[in-house]
Design a protein that fits this description.
Elements (H helix, E strand, L loop, with lengths): L2 H23 L3 E7 L4 H12 L8 E7 L7 H10 L4 E5 L1 H10 L5 E6 L18 E5 L5 H12 L5 E6 L4 H17 L2 E6 L6 H11 L3 E4 L3 H4 L2 H10 L4 E3 L11 E4 L2 H16 L10 E2 L4 E5 H6 L6 H6 L2 E3 L1
Helix pairs in contact: 2-10, 3-4, 5-6
Length: 322
């Protein structure tokens, strides 16, 4: 072989490992995302991820799976995503988190937002997760109590409060226990109306109409959130004062909203995603609780149902819709 041909061949051979390494680095990370609906919090999660350098379609692929009001879809979704496999599973809500936890013990599971992860059994230690699950929770131990107190303050004579809840969600079982304890102290009777799927909500609302409660409390459940317009319209038409857990209810006429801002939690979870995709261990990422809770009051809805919101409530509201 001539010297020139030999050097050319040698150069090509030496270039192959570098080329292969470059190609390997360009393989995008794959993330599975399970939620009930593509709500604004998911968009905020994507936007924050992009600011951190994870561009969807380039170095990041997101596999979306939406339950669309059916919690029983999540186990199948989780199995599909694990079999791909994805590098990280992102979940919204307790049912999706449980489905992910049962599907894998090795792939990192990132909670974008959920409720009480300790009492529901998702994790045993917030500060140092002992499994493959971490993330952000919209939890305050007094949250259900404060929602009931808000109703009692707005409607001093309230005695019967209906709670619309999804009994299939472990979080709602925990929250109902807290709500019952608070109701007893406030001298209020709790009546639970159940909706296990989006298809059950119409019959649940019919049941509430027949019951004629003094007020209503909506459970922290993304299944119900997907039907927020139908629910808030019903409460207004029936002139039932109601308190809701998520900001998204405000845009469709919810009277009172008290809870954490889920979109903020999802933005913060994008920072965790960045660290997980770069190799950080779940054990090094503590489960973080929401630190601020917002009160939103819709005075237009109050006027429509004939309720005068006490001045004290308006003064401490973070946002008043007029």
């Amino acid at each position: 072989m001539k010297r020139r041909e030999f050097l050319s061949t040698l150069g090509t051979a030496l270039a192959w490992p570098a080329l292969a390494f470059a190609q390997q680095k360009q393989v995008p990370k794959r993330v599975g995302l399970m939620a009930q609906f593509p709500l604004p919090a998911v968009r905020r999660f994507r936007e924050r991820s992009q600011k951190l350098g994870w561009v969807e379609g380039e170095n990041l692929l997101i596999e979306y799976r939406y339950g669309e009001g059916q919690d029983d879809r999540f186990p199948k979704f989780a199995a599909e995503l694990v079999s791909m496999p994805v590098d990280v599973l992102v979940v919204w809500g307790t049912p999706a988190a449980f489905a992910a936890k049962r599907a894998t013990t090795t792939i990192p599971i990132l909670i974008g937002a959920a409720g009480d992860v300790v009492n529901t059994g998702l994790v045993s230690n917030l500060a140092r997760p002992d499994a493959n699950l971490t993330g952000f929770i919209a939890l305050n131990v007094d949250l259900e109590s404060k929602r009931l107190e808000l109703l009692k303050e707005a409607i001093p004579g309230v005695s019967r409060v209906v709670v619309l809840a999804n009994p299939g969600n472990p979080l709602n079982r925990v929250n109902l226990d807290i709500a019952r304890q608070a109701a007893e102290k406030l001298g209020v009777k709790i009546e639970v109306v159940e909706a296990r799927s989006a298809a059950d909500i119409e019959s649940a609302l019919t049941q509430i109409r027949k019951s004629r409660p003094d007020a209503a409390l909506l459970a922290s459940d993304t299944l119900l959130l997907g039907k927020r317009k139908e629910i808030t319209d019903f409460m207004t038409e029936q002139r039932i004062p109601a308190v809701y857990p998520f900001r998204e209810y405000a845009a469709v006429g919810g009277l009172f909203i008290y809870g954490a801002n889920i979109s903020v939690l999802f933005e913060r979870s994008a920072d965790y995603l960045d660290r997980l995709l770069k190799g950080e261990k779940v054990a090094n990422l503590p489960v973080q609780q929401a630190t601020t809770f917002e009160l939103i009051v819709n005075t237009r809805t109050a006027s429509a149902i004939g309720l005068t919101v006490p001045r004290e409530i308006l003064l401490r509201a973070d946002d008043v819709i007029e």
